[in-house]
Design goal:
Blueprint: H1 2-8, E1 14-15, H2 33-42, H3 53-62, E2 69-73, E3 76-80, H4 86-94, H5 100-109, E4 115-119, H6 125-132, E5 136-141, H7 144-156, E6 161-165
Helix pairs in contact: 2-3, 3-4
Length: 170
């Protein structure tokens, strides 16, 4: 019975709505023409699995000019920061090809409506995938910048989850 009570109301996490992060509307940072072209070639295509993608990931990053890029992953809205985050760069360019073994395993093992705990959530790659399965998401990210990006990606999609940053105490 104690386990049920913890699952109903996690005492160690805070609902996303209570993090008060100022989020610019989705589409504020559209991809450049070059970034669109790169995504068209590599995103969810067999080329996204190949080493050939590496110089194109670098070109995609260069096109950012210090800012984020708004696009989609798993049919979800995502604000990517490819210049300083490899997960963002590779998933922005390659889509479902990035971490494909891991998310396919997750797809088999996570039941629809299940609970997904994402420790070291980064920008929310796996949390976003879990959201496509209508999972309850508990995401923990200790790095403050990545935590803010995780919150942004969850909020852009109206995902209600429980998120915890390193600075919050248990």
């Amino acid at each position: 019975m104690i386990l049920q009570k913890v699952a109903e109301s996690p005492p160690f996490v805070v609902p996303i709505q209570e993090h008060n992060i100022n989020i610019q509307p989705f589409g504020t940072y559209p991809p450049t023409k070059t970034q669109q072209w790169i995504r068209k070639i590599f995103f969810d295509t067999p080329l996204g699995y190949m080493k050939l993608r590496r110089p194109f990931v670098e070109k995609f990053k260069q096109e950012c000019k210090g800012g984020p890029v708004d696009s989609y992953l798993f049919g979800m809205k995502v604000r990517f920061y490819p210049q300083d985050n490899q997960t963002d760069a590779k998933s922005a360019v390659c889509g479902n090809c990035y971490n494909s073994k891991e998310w396919r395993w997750l797809d088999k093992c996570l039941p629809t409506g299940g609970t997904f705990i994402d420790i070291g959530a980064n920008m929310g790659f796996f949390s976003l995938f879990a959201a496509t399965k209508r999972a309850t998401i508990i995401a923990i990210e200790p790095q403050p910048t990545l935590f803010e990006r995780l919150c942004t990606n969850m909020a852009l999609n109206g995902i209600e989850g429980y998120l915890r940053a390193r600075s919050e105490s248990f």
